[in-house]
Amino acid sequence: MISKNLTAASTKPIILGILKQGNSYGYLIIKKIKELSGGKMEYSDGMLYPVLHRLEKEGLIKSNWTMDGGTRPRKYYEITEQGKTELVTEKVQWQQVNAVLNTLWDVKPSTT
Amino acid sequence: MFNLEKEIIKWLKPFHKQRAFDEGSIHEMEMHLRDHIEDLIAQGLSERDAFQRAVEEFGDVKPLANDEYLNIKRKTTLRSILFRTMLSNYFKTTLRSMMKNPLSSFINIFGLAVAIGACMVTYAFINFDMGIDRFHENKDEVFLSTYVVNREGKEVQYGNAPAPLAEMIRDDFSVIEKVSRVHDGNAVVKYGDNVFHESVRYVDPAFLEMFTFPLKWGATSSLNDMNSIILSEEMSQKYFGDENPVGQEIKVIVGNDLYKVFKVAGVAKEFPKSRIIDFSFLTNIENMKVLYPSFDFHSWKKQLNATFIQVKRPEDLATIKGKMEKYKRYQNEVESDWPISSFDFVSLHDLHLTSDQIKNDISYDASEEGRVALPFIAGFILALACFNYLNIAIVSAAKRLKEIGMRKVIGASKRLIIFQFIAENLLLTFIAGIIGFILAVTIFLPWFAAFSDISSEFDLLDGNMWLTLFSILLFTGIASGVYPAFYISKFQVVKIFKGSVKFGKKNLATKIFLTAQLILTCVGIGFAVIFAQNTYYQENRGWGYGQKEVLYAEVQESSDLEKLKSEMVKEPGVISAAGSKHHLSKRYETTVVHLPNHQYEVHELAVGTNYLETLDVSLKEGRLFNKNQESDKKSLVVNETFVQNLALNQPIGMQVKIDSIPYQIVGVVEDFHFNNFYYELSPTIFTLADEEAHRFLTLKVTDQSKVASYKALLKTWSALFPEKPFNGGFQEDSWVGFYEELDTMQRFTRAIAIVFVLLASLGLYGLIQLNIKGRVREFSIRKTLGAAPGNLTKNVVNQYLIIFGIAIVLGIPAAHVMNTAMLEMMFEDPLPYGYLGSIISAVLLIFVLAAVIAAQVRKLSKANPVEGLKVE
Fold first, then answer.
1. pTM reported for the whole predicted model
2. Among A26, A30, A73, whose Cβ lies nearest the Cβ of B411?
3. CA gap B655, B703 in Å, rounded
4. Which of B37, B122, B354, B379 is found 20 to 30 A from B601 (Cα to Cα)?
5. Chain B: nearest CA to A88, how far in angstroms?
6. What pLDDT digit, counting tens, does each position of B746-773 carry?
């Protein structure tokens, strides 16, 4: 199980990443995260929404209510240009962290 | 049995309680839950299990709310950010619905703007009025000395003061810092060829230290110098133009041998507009001893116009008040008719507003009517505009039902719809507010300032003004929007789309609002009619004596009067001439008449033997004065009011005492108006004056020779007294101020009436126009089926008939009561009320209604029914 803190820290790039693949709404986004993580990320569904709203406020994503053909109205989120730039930055940062960790773990413990 | 819908609603409840979530977020989360449940059911779970699992996975509300709250808190202007999108949407909607019905929007906005403008003018007036005489730095430390006399059970406060009081209290109380007596006298002021009648104010040198009247030229200390005089800016202009007059000499003449030459020692800066106490010529009061040698400053019988004191701390007054017994005794020893019951002090700060209750007061309060009438008028316009708005809003909301339904479907809660409508309303009101403010500044206030003395500028930095404006807007916006908002928000979506909502037709509240609008309309029209009637009545009523063929002149000495009289009686047009000490509309005294069991205050006119005949005062019973001065010295002629007020059965031959001298009533004359119609008739007595006391010459002339006689009078005057400015004229002109004021008031009320009628008619027009527009399809069908314009009219009229009926039945008496109450407040003797005015108002109202309906029906019957039947 991935810890709460780490989950929280990674939510932003994950959401932006999902939205980069196409517009989506809250329920679908969380479903996708669950699928991708194989249920290993410790999430309560509801916690997604404050994050979505925060990203929207920051201008990284935007939303609109859509009603198509007989379904219930849904609030679709869409990544903005600013969001895409942000995603690149995030990606670089995570890769750097990853690189640091990889280097550490590749080094054999000193046997002196 | 598990009910999924109920459970979901229950689950949503705590979300509503959290301020962090707006309606949109809650809706979003509800959709999430529903999607999840649906998925789980599809996977084979039961409704109950699916619900429980979805809720469990969703998590607790509390931490969620906290997270969300952080989002909101991040920006300080949380509301504006939250609602920006929503508000911009509302803004667009508002503008669109405004553009859709430009006429009714114009009526709404214009009506509200006029109402708000009127409120602003009222604010400016009251603000100005409250500021009168409050610019003096020592306004809280300077007090007017007054005394209270018990008159037949009524405490009456007087603003003048016994002459010796000032000097005595200054010496007796250490807490009194400064004292100034104030007395006024008429005089002729002469500088070169400039000779005019003026009023001179005699004061103690402390006057300019107590009152804040800074000087433009010269020094305030010059008041200590007996030979100095200080001029107001206006007088300086009048006599000397733009030049600095300091050092110039002017002559102040109060009688043939009574004059003094003064050196101009100062000129005051222009006085603030909001003042009552001021001066034209200001000089040391000791000069009165030279100019009025007979005035005894040590006599408690003599009164000065005012005595002001200045204390260090206002609290010290209590000490002073407690120790006034001594002066009360002095005064009551000499003036036993009306013993003083106490002395009192009124601060300069409160003087203007209390001066209505103080007799013989140096200040006065001429704006009480304004303080009552203006808020009434402004409130009335505001109410009318609100009802117009309300009724139009209800009808137009009916056209927006689909929009409301749509909003509800996509998740707007009841609260949000209410919010939308009120926000929309506030927006409209604020637009109206801006227009209203512009109207007030550019049109209303300058227009109003031309009528009254108020300053025509708004102080844009006056915080209270903005607060007032803002409160009015907020109140208006909410008051007029709250009902439609709540009413509309209650509709069920399904019914809206089905078209089964019948809006505003059978609803009781709607009918009440409409009736209220019509009643206000009635009152407005009634106002116009009754005030027009009253002005006509006031202008054309008689004064109770022959004011039209009478000339008068005022002189300073009785010898002058004799000269003038002997010349004037030679004129062919002059029928009779009379001298008098007092004169109707010009001068009188108040005297106390003692009857065996009580005493009574009356107006006294001391006149010459044939004065009453010359003025054509009609005799009711008894006789007028004899030609023989001596035989009637102890005779009185009284007026009807005197007889009525004292309930005398046999006035003729009755004995009364004045100043312990017995007099006998020999005649009763019919009532006459001694002062203009703002004043009630007063009990009046005529006595015979010694010829040496005569100051007024009254001439009765033939109607044809009026102008010629006046010219002759002027010519004789300038031949006899080339040094003195003429003081007199047509008796009719003595009320010139009153008629001018009446004319001013007429123009004012006419304008107000036009606004009332305009707003009222516009309101009705907008309402009926909207209503007919809404039924255009129905009318088109009727037309196609052969309905004549008559049928259509009947159809429209039927809808309103009962409401109009009720409104007229209630509105006409309401108008009558309200308007006559207002008239009574303004005139002591207003027009005798008949129902004629009310009938005219009813007819006018029906006429307005008929005109509005006719205009609409005409349009309808001319229109092509095909156009009306087209759908969107």
1. 0.67
2. A73
3. 40
4. B354
5. 23
6. 788 778 888 888 888 888 887 787 777 7
